[in-house]
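An instance noted here:
***
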Amino acid sequence: MGLLTKDIKSLDDLLRQGLGELLYSERRIRRAIPALRSKVRDPMLRRELDDCLQAATENARHLEEAFTLLGALPGSIECPAIDGIFISAEELNDEIDGYHVLDTAIAAAMQAVENYASARYVTVIGWTRELDRPETARLLQKCRARHQHGADSMYLLAERRLNAQAGRRSSASRSVASSMPLAS
C-alpha cells in the first residue's frame, strides 16, 4: 500500500488483495499447526490438526492457481485477523494448566481459524463471481468447503469428546479444592 496513494481502485484489485490475505492465512495455518499439535494429547484432535494441515497445503496450492488464472503472480499479504486469532490462542494456551482443558482450548482456537477463513472465502468467491471468473470461484469454493468441514469437525470433536473430558477434569479439581481445609 502506498503512503500517498490508494492502491485498491477496483474490485479486481480488491480481489487480488483478498487472495493475498487468504494465501497468507493458509501459510500461517501451516506454520502454527505443528506447534499446536505438539501440545495436544488427544489422538483424535491430533488427527484433526493433521487434516487441517493437509487442507491448508491444498488450499495454498489452489490459491496460487487462482492467482495464475487471474494473470497475476501469487503473493501473500499480511492478514492481522488470522494473526490475532493465533496470538490470542497462544496467550491463552500459556495460561492453561491441564491437558484436557488445553486440548479443548486448541480445538476452540482452530474452530475460530476455520470459521474466519471460511467467511473470508465466501466474500472473495462473491467477488470472483461478480467479475465473471467462474473457474476461480470453483477453486476457491473447494478451499471454503475444506475450512467449513474443519470448523464443523472441530466443533463436533469438542462437543462429543473434548469438552466433557475438560469438564470432568474441572469438576474433579473443584471437588478436591472444596474438600481441603481452610488455612487458619
User: Anything to note?
Assistant: Residues 134-179 form the longest helix (46 residues).
